[in-house]
Amino acid sequence: MSKITVILRVGWVIYSPATTRLLRLRDGEPQTITALIERRDEAQLASFSGSVPGQGGEGESSAESLGLSLMPLNAAARSRFNIDEAITGVVVTGVASGSEAEEKGFQPGTVIIAVGNDEVQTPDDVTAGIEAAREAGRESVLLLVADAQGQRFVTLNAEQDG
Predict the structure, then answer these.
(1) How many other CB atoms sit within 10 Å of the CB of residue 121?
(2) What's the number of CA atoms in the CB half-sphere (13 Å) around residue 156?
(3) Which among 116, 107, 118, 117 has a CA at the least distance from the CA of 146?
(4) 3-state secondary structure of 44
(5) What is the pTM of this model?
(6) N or C end of the chain: which has fewer CB within 10 A?
(7) Domain span at residue 107?
(8) Contact status, residue 54 vs residue 63, Cβ threshold 8 Å
(9) For position 38, what pLDDT does the model report?
């Protein structure tokens, strides 16, 4: 089992479009870059990726019992959802309307980093973690997730049927 690294991010509201200067470290050296920040809507994402998030795109899998559609976090998913290279896990591509996951802030682009104490790399890893929680008699499953607000732990009812 590998160590889980927590990356903290600061969230803020920006009225689109806007530019901002960012400081980053590249090979140990600080660099300042200017970024244009714009809101991306679902139509733009669909035209870029060739499919609508959560609608059965290539490599997608389903964690239907939690109301989530998932896919591996690959280069295409990183580009599609603007996910930092430092984040690892499985990306959420769709969230069932009215589900507990939706109520707890899951949305397309949220990354599941770990289920319980185990890091995940594939949708099957997420499913296996949920099943392990159920088999252990747990009422809920603990997920470490990352999104635009940073990383956080979320519990979802493991006994859901959809």
Answers:
(1) 13
(2) 28
(3) 107
(4) helix
(5) 0.62
(6) N
(7) 61-157
(8) no
(9) 58
